[in-house]
Amino acid sequence: MLQEIDPFDGAVLIDKPPGITSHDVVDCLRRRFQIKKVGHAGTLDPNATGLLVILLGRGTRLSERLMAADKVYAGTIKFGEATNTYDADGELTASLPVPPLTLDELNAEADAFVGDLMQTPPMVSAAKVAGVPLYKLARKGIEVERKPRLIHIYSFRFTSYQEPCGAFRIACTKGTYVRSLAHDLGQKIGCGAHLATLRRTDSGRFSAADAMPLDAALALSPAEFQKRVIPFLKLSVSG
């Protein structure tokens, strides 16, 4: 006998605000709409914004498939300052003069990262070693060996540059740490760098242009919210 599909089985697209975790978004929606099973298809760092694919009910069964989708991000990188977390949340570890750079020269440096790369997860990340998230170890001052992972960068282009900050767009496979790319690019140029801002614009076939701000979603009635749910059957067929 086929299991009846609940109208809340599926996914909703949320535009995550800065300052909260992806898990916070899940908790807010679970409590507001009293949905037992809520998850997401790919974490965003607390200060990152943009597309968060929230999975509801039976939609959580598709987590691995949807999480495997390619991603697109836009953001800014600040050159001349390196941090211990590779982003603006960390402590400054180095400050160096930024060499003269044109937009074309910056893109020539970024081109070196396009293609297959072996990338080591940063210590301040949700990647796990022996079941423990790395960021929990980092908080205790513990650094452990991490295994490099194969990722693929489809494109990495700067759209503008005004020293010391460059705005960029990157298309990549799942599991790519954009802040690690920012750090590595700064090392390659010789002045250090960190990820200043990050926004996820696309995940697979889903776009932030179709996503609801979290506060707007929480203001909806259950009936209004249900209208924004991408049905489970549609997700499972076209993934």
Describe the structure.
The protein has about 240 residues and is of the alpha+beta class. It folds into two domains: about 10-70 and about 205-239, 2-Layer Sandwich (Pseudouridine synthase); about 70-200, Pseudouridine synthase. Helix content is about 25%, strand content about 35%. It has helices spanning about 20-35, 65, 105-110, 135-140, 180-190, 215-220, 220-225, 230-239; strands at about 10-15, 40, 50-55, 70-80, 80-85, 90-95, 115-120, 130, 130-135, 150-160, 165-170, 195-205, 205, 210-215, 230. Strands 1, 2, 3, 4, 7, 10, 11, 12, 13, 14 and 15 form an eleven-stranded mixed sheet that branches. A two-stranded antiparallel ribbon has the order 5-6. It has a two-stranded antiparallel sheet with strand order 8-9. A hairpin with a 2-residue loop joins strand 8 and strand 9. It is globular. The mean pLDDT is about 90.
